[in-house]
């Protein structure tokens, strides 16, 4: 009698992106500088995370740009409308669902 491998292993693996909140390790240290700046800011501010939100956003942007996490909207990550941000498009003035509706007003 032979036992062999379970059927799921013999069919192979399929790579899936991580679930939300699961971050692959940054083995090559691609975002280490951003992480270090953020952690230093947290230490200096007495773990007051609101003072370091812009650095948190830079770190997550680095991870998203390098495929270490799925790209997500800043609103979903709690990092929208940080002080010093340039407004991209105001939700108060959007009359359509397209984010690029500002270019049609100057053509007359």
Question: Can you walk through the features of this model?
Answer:
This protein has 108 residues and is mainly alpha-helical. It has a domain at 26-80. Helix content is 31%, strand content 0%. The protein is built from 4 helices and no strands. The chain is elongated, with a radius of gyration of 21 Å. It starts with 6 loop residues before the first helix and ends in a 31-residue tail after the last helix. Mean pLDDT is 73; it is low at 89-108. It holds the Pfam family CHCH. Required for the assembly of mitochondrial cytochrome c oxidase. It is found in: Cytoplasm. Residues 76-108 are annotated as: Disordered.
SSE order, as H and E? HHHH
Overall 3D form:
elongated
Q: Report the helical percentage.
A: 25-40%
Number of helices: 4
Q: What is the number of E strands?
A: 0
Distance between the termini: 82 Å
- Biggest beta-sheet profile: none
Question: Which percent band covers the strand fraction?
Answer: under 5%
Radius of gyration, taken over Cα atoms and rounded to an integer in Å: 21 Å
Question: Which residue ranges are poorly predicted, with pLDDT under 50 across at least 5 consecutive positions?
Answer: 89-108
Average pLDDT works out at: 73
Structural class given helices, strands, pairing? mainly alpha
